[in-house]
Amino acid sequence: MPGSRALLTDDLLERIRGRAAQTDRDNGFPEEDLAELTEAGYLRAMVPEELGGLGLTLEEMTREQMRLAGAAPATALSVNMHQVWMGVARLLHTRGEDSMDWALAEAVAGEVFGFGISEAGNDLVLFGSRTEARPDGAGGFGFHGTKIFTSLAPAWTRLGTFGTDSTGAEPMSVFGFITRDGGGFEVRDDWDTLGMRGSQSRTTVLDGAHAPADRVIRRIPPGPTADPFVFGIFANFELLLASVYTGIAQRALDLAVATVHKRTSLKNNGAPYAHDPDIRWRLADAAIELDAIHPQIGALAHDVDNGVERGPIWMPQLSAVKSRATETALSVVTKAVRVSGGSSYFNANELSRLYRDVLAGIFHPSDDESVHGAWANALLGPLPTSG
After folding, report:
1. How many Cβ atoms from other residues are within 10 Å of residue 194's Cβ?
2. If we measure between CA atoms, which residue out of 83, 56, 57 comes closest to residue 69?
3. Chain segment 280-321, per-residue pLDDT in tens
4. Statement: the pTM of the whole predicted model exceeds 0.90
5. Extended strands (E) in 154-253
6. Domain spanning 10-111: which superfamily?
7. Helices (H), the chain
8. Within 13 Å of residue 264, how many CA atoms lie on the same side as its CB?
9. Class for domain 228-380, per CATH?
10. CATH node for 114-220
């Protein structure tokens, strides 16, 4: 039945969970996690079965990413970027476009895809780039610019990126893929952050990294667009990201429930805190918040999978579910920490790490400001331009 398959076993998730704290302490990269996930077929999970994959839908993958994030948030976040590209390629394939079938085949062959889109100070995100895309005269492009938050930095073998071609009469956004063995880039060892340390989302400086003509997927005008490739990036990124933070929140809630059953109150003659009405209210409040997010992610992912057309409201709705999921996750984890007492303030406590990891959600696009701007435009129309 669609939406019911699960790929990650409980044993695999427990092994991954067992390594997460050390990876965080070392500011390392979860190489063993990636190796085990690859062995389990996770990197080809969204590849259609007829192309050698496991055929999971986006809706199914959102559920898997929630489970993986509950075990190791940073591992889930890094692998998320590979899954975004697989989701894009799958979406195009199911809509009859074969421009990224090569990516599906390469994922089956073991290639790992990274996501090189974000730029410092660029709130246009997918709709404009400071990176230069210089044509090579044969349909390919060399990219020159700096990308930030490049997750999977130590491990990717293919990097999807984009820049602006300003050589013609009008600027054009160019989306293409470079290879690690092709050179023309530097990965800086600069990832030393509050949380999500294992994602190793390092800065990547592009200095002529080349995408040949057959790896250039789009050359389109900058700005909002209904192009299925750009829509695919947006939809998969927002929904899979929302899933990661929802998984963190669920894990924090589960830990808090277990903790309040074990914590006892001297004031209440040794009764567990699970009997305290204030604690019960706070955890119930967290669960109510979180309960609303799961069906929203599922409904949107289902419609992406099935090609449902929601019109101009699609992008705002996708932005909103990401924003709502990350803000809810932050709220839930905070409540979990509050009811779990002072022990959760120690680094040895898993909740302490989840509290740091969940904060990263507010920095991913779409941010809260752009979400509200998109909805204001949808409801009220765009602001008039001056001059």
Report:
1. 10
2. 83
3. 999 999 999 999 999 999 999 999 999 999 999 999 999 999
4. yes
5. 158-165, 172-179, 185-187, 202-211, 216-220
6. Acyl-CoA dehydrogenase/oxidase, N-terminal domain (1.10.540.10)
7. 10-26, 31-39, 58-71, 73-94, 101-108, 228-262, 277-291, 293-305, 314-340, 350-358, 368-380
8. 4
9. mainly alpha
10. 2.40.110.10
